[in-house]
Amino acid sequence: MPSWEPEKLMAGVSHQDELGQLLREIKERSGRSYEWIGKRINASKSTVHRYCSGQSIPPNFATVELIATACRADRDELVRLHRLWIEAIATAAPEKADDSPPDTGSAPDTPREPAHSGSTRTRGSRHAVVLMSVGLLISCLLVLTASSSPLTSTASRGQVQRITGPSWVLPPAPVPRTLFGVTVNSATGAMPSFKVGAVRLWDSATRWSQIERRRGELDWSTLDRQVAGARRAGLPVLFVFGGTPAWASPNGSRAPYPEGARAAPPDDLADWDAFVSVTADRYAGRIEAYELWALGNDHRFYTGDVETLVEMTRRASRIIKAADPQATVVCPGMGRLWTHAGRDAMRRFAELGGYAHCDVAGIKLYQRTASDPPETMLELATTVNRVLHGAGVHPPVWSTGTSYTITLQDPLDAVTARNYAVRYFLAGLYLRDLNLERMYFYNWGGAKIPLVLQVEGGAPTAAALAVERLQHWLAPARSRSCGQGGAIGLPHNVWRCEFTIPGDRDSHPAAIIWTSTGTARITSPGEGEAHRLDGTSRRVRPGDAITVGEDPLFVEYG
Hints:
The protein has an 8-stranded parallel beta sheet, with helices on one face. A 7-stranded antiparallel beta sheet has the order 1-10-11-12-17-14-15, with no helix packed on it. The chain has a two-stranded antiparallel sheet with strand order 13-16.
């Protein structure tokens, strides 16, 4: 039978369906959950489910192999998977227009990458690709039959080019204190009692609809208290505009807040101008930065069109810079970026010139679910970078929040919470090459989230103290590279960022090393001190075996 099995195609069974079916069979036989597999391969459980149900095709065969290997597939199954993946890519239909549902915390994965971007193949050219793939498959099978080397070492036109080397290497630069931000979910003016580098005010009784309940009558008491508390703690403040008062948009859709805030823009943008102006004038020199809307591409928070959002951004930026030239203007936060609709709105905002009016782009960088490893956020960040790059804009980026559905997700156990909290900020550090400057963890002060750093009035959790220890490690450090897995000669689940630590006479190297799931053993390249999050340390010598786990390890050499 020809390898593309025409009778199956005529019966309506696609190669994509066959690939998903075989992956699902291997997965079910192993007894492993989608979440467990996702942690093993640095992907979300919903992504693994999509691949195993045939809803989408993995963009490269390496992903297929990782799933299969995690489920203990044998060599014959790997060969079958390779054949099906090549044929699925060759016969994949053009990507459909977006019909993504609103973000629910398990939103569709990023769009499938076509085998040849920028073109739509005709039926005849698709058949030609299939025939070429068959010849390629035969060559691959011959190589596999004659060699006992792993499948990943077999070069193929159907596979993504393998590149070794760190994700980035840049001139050493200090790790900014402000990388370690939190969103304050409190109205009392209290601040974290553990070390953080910046605070963002949202869900802190400082919405426009709470400050100006009636036109021209402004109550600054809560915002004054918050700004004063931050100044006493030496923390720069990011104020967030959002929540149109009911009087400014009587017929607008309601936002999810009890005071009757509207998700619609004000009917008269002069009201917007007036509030931005009085706020910037009052807090000039006291508020460091302004985010011009909490979520500009989420219909629960903003129901206006993108053109109006760009105009609001233009007006607000001009007003803020006139009142306080040193203030940083952050473009409206963009969330729901795991969905087509969320990305399309962000792309439209960029194409209309919205980012030309701001100093910084605000995005919501988060895992699909709280139980996914923080490293899965890197996929989302790469997607955001492509959107911005495609529009020809390259602003600095601040991650200013998470998914609206975060409060609906299950809590993490204490050990996972500690490890994930630290790796959340390490993910931000890892994205230095994409111009990401700050991470604002959501949130501080509240308890109704899966990962709690500190409830207002309570003691910092082990997760908060671990974040504080990470900042202690990195306070004198200058970051110079980050990489992962085989690209830097380590096991696939190992991540490493390297630093230079200045000294009195000379500098010395250091590294933070961790796994996204499970453990791994690596060899120490030199003599130094290995520090763990629990405060313990041990001396390591050249050639010593070091066990690395999901709790990051800080090693200073020399």
